[in-house]
Amino acid sequence: MLERVWGNIEKRRFSPLYLLYGSEPFLLTETYERIVKAALDEGEREWNFAVYDCEETPVEMALEEAETVPFFGERRVVVVKHPYFFTSEKEKEIEHNLAKLEAYVNAPAPFSIVIFFAPYDKLDERKKITKLAKERCEVVVASSLGEAELRAWVRRRIESEGASISEEAIDVLLRRAGTQLSVLANETEKLALFAGPGGVVEADAVERLVARTPEENVFVLVEQVAKRDIPGALRTLVDLLGHQEEPIKMLALLASHFRLLSQVKWLAQTGYGQTQIASALNVHPFRVKLALAQAARFSEQELVEAINDLADVDHQVKSGAMDRRLALELLLMRWGARPEEGRSRR
To answer: In this predicted structure, what is the pLDDT of residue 346?
Structure first.
């Protein structure tokens, strides 16, 4: 759906009404910016662009703006932010004339584009005004992208700058930068600039230019532990601590990561697929994919022991019984000393 809407915007086939809502704020903002950029030249925006916030201003003021013939241009764009009357939120101090809103939605001005910018996970579809808006508006639901959609989004952003990117490079990018769109937007811009028009972004360029997130660093460290590469894990730890990562934060990240490995392993054993696990844990499918592969390197007992070890070390560090950095180093060496023979992968 998003591809279709964006395609129509690029071709300047505008709807007079847009309803943008969902849990992914970056996609909401990107869609809104695409509409404004395609509909109005920069010189027109001073005269024909307005933003109203329903938490501060009655919606009828925005509608009056939309009913005003544009100056020195073909169309007017009016953004209506926080239209909470589409949700189940309680009424606020500002009173809105919903009868006038209904009338406008039924007969919008042909020379205006009204964008209802609703950064909410859900709308209240029991309400008459919400049902009407969903019937009459071009609706964009900005939810979290699945892995295939995310890869396509990365590819499209690189290509919009005149470059291209290999599939291996996308893998490395998602592992290193994570799945947050605002972060990926910055990284894709940097990579496209590096490749230049007609260039190809390869995996080695991503490794050189994109810094790992703390979560990715923990993933690498745990992978080294799984392989019993304790010298490598210690080097990774030293590198992290040298980049101002706090030992307490590292303990928390490790505990969170091992809990995720334990959860995905258990859910997979009960018959859940990757998408179902992602939904159950509210974790991005790509992260679940990586976690499943890594969890297969550990037995259930090892994962439980790792979580318990981290809880013990956390207590020792916070009680002052052990130096923070030394505690982490000793923990890694303890994990490495455990026998690998006879490990159950079930």
So the answer is: 43
C-beta of residue 227 within 8 angstroms of C-beta of residue 293: no
Per-residue model confidence (pLDDT) at position 86:
94
Separation CA 66–CA 308 (nearest Å)? 60
Alpha-carbon distance 63 to 57, whole Å? 11
CATH number, domain 214-337: 1.20.272.10
Contact 104, 137 (CB under 8 A): no
Which parts of the chain register pLDDT below 70? 243-244, 338-346
2-141 adopts what CATH topology? Answer: Rossmann fold (3.40.50)
Per the listing, tokens 């903002």 go with: 29
pLDDT at 341: 46
* Residue 93: predicted pLDDT: 76
> Which DSSP category does 86 fall into?
G
Topology of the domain covering 147-209: Helicase, Ruva Protein; domain 3 (1.10.8)
Give percent helix, percent strand, percent coil of the chain, each to the nearest 5.
60, 10, 30
Strand segments, DSSP code E, in 100-162 are: 112-118, 138-141
pLDDT (0 to 100) of residue 340: 60
Q: How many CB atoms lie within 10 A of CB 51?
A: 16
Distance CA 36, CA 9 (A): 9
Contacts of 150 (CB under 8 A, 6+ apart): 174, 179, 284, 286
Contact between 137 and 17 (Cβ < 8 Å): yes
Calculate Rg over the CA atoms of the chain.
25
What are the b/e assignments for 87-113, b being 16+ CB within 10 Å?
A: beeeeeeeebebeebeebbeebbebbb
For residue 343, the model assigns a pLDDT of 45
Q: For strand 138-141 and strand 17-21, is the pairing parallel, antiparallel, or unpaired?
A: parallel
